[in-house]
Design brief:
The protein is an alpha+beta fold and 310 residues long. The chain contains 6 helices and 12 strands.
Length: 310
Amino acid sequence: MGENGNVWMPDAMSTVASEVDSLFYFVLWTSTIIFALVILAKVYFAVRFRRRDPAEVPQPIHESKLLETAWIVIPTILVLIVFTWGFKVFVKLNSPPPDAYQITVRGKQWFWEFQYPNGTVVANEMHVPIGQPVKLLMSSEDVLHSFFIPDFRVKHDVLPNRYTSLWFEATAPGEYQIYCTEYCGTSHSGMLGKVIVQTEEEFAAWLNEQSQDLPPAELGANVFRQYNCGVCHSVDGTRIVGPTMKGLWGAERQFEDGGTAVADENYIRESVLNPGAHIVATYPNAMPATFGSLSAKQLDGLIAFIQTLE
């Protein structure tokens, strides 16, 4: 949390965030004041009108027209203020500027995939230019997800078989956390990403770099990191959800059905594209079949990277 954040909210880093915060604090402090007044009134009445003698018979109380009018009119006014204010913010949050830069977002178990207008596809790292409205066109390829960037105050469900969208305009460079806030399976908590806000020059340079060739093993390392493969597969021999990648290349694999296979190019390719085909003994069938969008080049790079993990 930066110097502009507080116990309630992280830093406000988009053009709409301050409006969301203002509405939140209006509701918070109005509710706090009303709550305090109600509690003070209860304490006062309990002390002021307590029965002092068991034989005491209280005098009949006649209603106050002014009081009854007040507790109808004042809450009605407050509700109308919150509704009108909230509706204006809602409309703004759902009305991207016509010149917004569009990025396609795909939610998958358990990573975010971002596709840019020039065809560049990356996972879990969304680069955007500062001061430029950005529209996200989102869909899911498996189950229900929810895309949330706290610093920008934007959040929306990501659904299978349909598109949803949101937009934002970042006001400061930096890295901001992306969360999935809808439980989506075993590794839901690991479905994290980052928004990297850059100057227009830095963003243009980054986008240009994505089209350049990398050595296969280096490309594979990027794929392994970007697609959160390390959430289930370690590279140092540690046992976690899935088998470790260390020493995998050329090793004989024992399967739950009693079969065996040598971990070569074809085995790794099938394990990525059709993970349920062969289940390694003592491990669960937990890997989702959502990596079919990987290109042949990315698969080749991933295989080359695994070969280096001796």
